[in-house]
Amino acid sequence: TWKWVVGPMFLYLCERLVRFWRSQQKVVITKVVIHPFKTIELQMMKKGFKMEVGQYIFVKCPAVSKLEWHPFTLTSAPEEDYFSIHVRIVGDWTEGLFNVCGCDKQEFQEAWKLPKIAVDGPFGTASEDVFSYETVMLVGAGIGVTPFASVLKSVWYKYCHDATNLKLKKIYFYWLCRDTHAFEWFADLLQSLEAQMQERNNAEFLSYNIYLTGWDETQATHFVVHHEEEKDVITGLKQKTLYGRPNWENEFRTIAGNHPGSRIGVFLCGPEALADTLNKQSISNSEADPRGVHFIFNKENF
């Protein structure tokens, strides 16, 4: 038995040593941004840190806990000179991080007072393959939208730099949230992308649908009077917020009809129940003919 155990144990110990060495490298918090609904953004720098879209890191804050490591998706783009994460305050550890970063104080926080942070990673996810397709469906549920913040930022940087060499030609973005609070920090990015794409006369590049799943049409009746306004009253975007849950069968059929003979990447960051639904739709709407439309499903969740 020992012959079969020694090899894997040696590899495991090597991996632990590499992770320990990486976690000891100095990380500098350059900026802390407080977003609505108790969500904070940490912008950091680390020597030699290289990332791809959609990757995640493990974070430890010794001032909160000397042993706990927590995974967070990177929300910055590889083209930016820093890396960032968005942290929603939902438990003891995140509450402690919120406090040690001085977010509970009204006065300006000096940089030297910010806590030390240890970072391990980045680690790869399925979202890295976004740029391998001409057409993609991005589906985020709640805070699961964070990897697509990185994707959309990177798409914009690549589009501005050299749009002709960008293989990705069409993005269908779906964001599902139970309440309006979760929209507030991410809507700014969508507003910026929406305005910039219109300036370049390519508004069709990004199609997005935002669903407020905790409400239905009867609960949203008082918003109907504002439906004819240019911008949505909840998100401030031109695309109006939809209520309830999407009809995935209709969405897949419509996209398949718009892109015959294409390989379409379907990327999800969300719960298992939604993953099962999208996986079944990807299979049922893919054609048997190799020259027909094919949906390739990719998922990630913590």
TrEMBL record:
<dbReference type="InterPro" id="IPR013112">
    <property type="entry name" value="FAD-bd_8"/>
</dbReference>
<dbReference type="GO" id="GO:0034220">
    <property type="term" value="P:monoatomic ion transmembrane transport"/>
</dbReference>
<keyword id="KW-0406">Ion transport</keyword>
<dbReference type="InterPro" id="IPR013121">
    <property type="entry name" value="Fe_red_NAD-bd_6"/>
</dbReference>
<feature type="domain" description="FAD-binding FR-type">
    <location>
        <begin position="19"/>
        <end position="129"/>
    </location>
</feature>
<dbReference type="InterPro" id="IPR000778">
    <property type="entry name" value="Cyt_b245_heavy_chain"/>
</dbReference>
<keyword id="KW-1017">Isopeptide bond</keyword>
<keyword id="KW-0274">FAD</keyword>
<dbReference type="Pfam" id="PF08030">
    <property type="entry name" value="NAD_binding_6"/>
</dbReference>
<keyword id="KW-0249">Electron transport</keyword>
<dbReference type="Pfam" id="PF08022">
    <property type="entry name" value="FAD_binding_8"/>
</dbReference>
<keyword id="KW-0832">Ubl conjugation</keyword>
<keyword id="KW-0479">Metal-binding</keyword>
<dbReference type="GO" id="GO:0043020">
    <property type="term" value="C:NADPH oxidase complex"/>
</dbReference>
<dbReference type="InterPro" id="IPR017927">
    <property type="entry name" value="FAD-bd_FR_type"/>
</dbReference>
<keyword id="KW-1133">Transmembrane helix</keyword>
<keyword id="KW-0812">Transmembrane</keyword>
<dbReference type="GO" id="GO:0006952">
    <property type="term" value="P:defense response"/>
</dbReference>
<dbReference type="InterPro" id="IPR017938">
    <property type="entry name" value="Riboflavin_synthase-like_b-brl"/>
</dbReference>
<keyword id="KW-0325">Glycoprotein</keyword>
<dbReference type="GO" id="GO:0016175">
    <property type="term" value="F:superoxide-generating NAD(P)H oxidase activity"/>
</dbReference>
<comment type="function">
    <text>Catalytic subunit of the phagocyte NADPH oxidase complex that mediates the transfer of electrons from cytosolic NADPH to O2 to produce the superoxide anion (O2(-)). In the activated complex, electrons are first transferred from NADPH to flavin adenine dinucleotide (FAD) and subsequently transferred via two heme molecules to molecular oxygen, producing superoxide through an outer-sphere reaction.</text>
</comment>
<dbReference type="GO" id="GO:0042554">
    <property type="term" value="P:superoxide anion generation"/>
</dbReference>
<dbReference type="InterPro" id="IPR039261">
    <property type="entry name" value="FNR_nucleotide-bd"/>
</dbReference>
<keyword id="KW-0285">Flavoprotein</keyword>
<keyword id="KW-0408">Iron</keyword>
<keyword id="KW-0407">Ion channel</keyword>
<keyword id="KW-0521">NADP</keyword>
<keyword id="KW-0851">Voltage-gated channel</keyword>
<keyword id="KW-1003">Cell membrane</keyword>
<keyword id="KW-0597">Phosphoprotein</keyword>
<protein>
    <recommendedName>
        <fullName>NADPH oxidase 2</fullName>
    </recommendedName>
</protein>
<keyword id="KW-0349">Heme</keyword>
<keyword id="KW-0472">Membrane</keyword>
<keyword id="KW-0560">Oxidoreductase</keyword>
<dbReference type="GO" id="GO:0046872">
    <property type="term" value="F:metal ion binding"/>
</dbReference>
<keyword id="KW-0813">Transport</keyword>
<dbReference type="GO" id="GO:0034702">
    <property type="term" value="C:monoatomic ion channel complex"/>
</dbReference>
<dbReference type="InterPro" id="IPR050369">
    <property type="entry name" value="RBOH/FRE"/>
</dbReference>
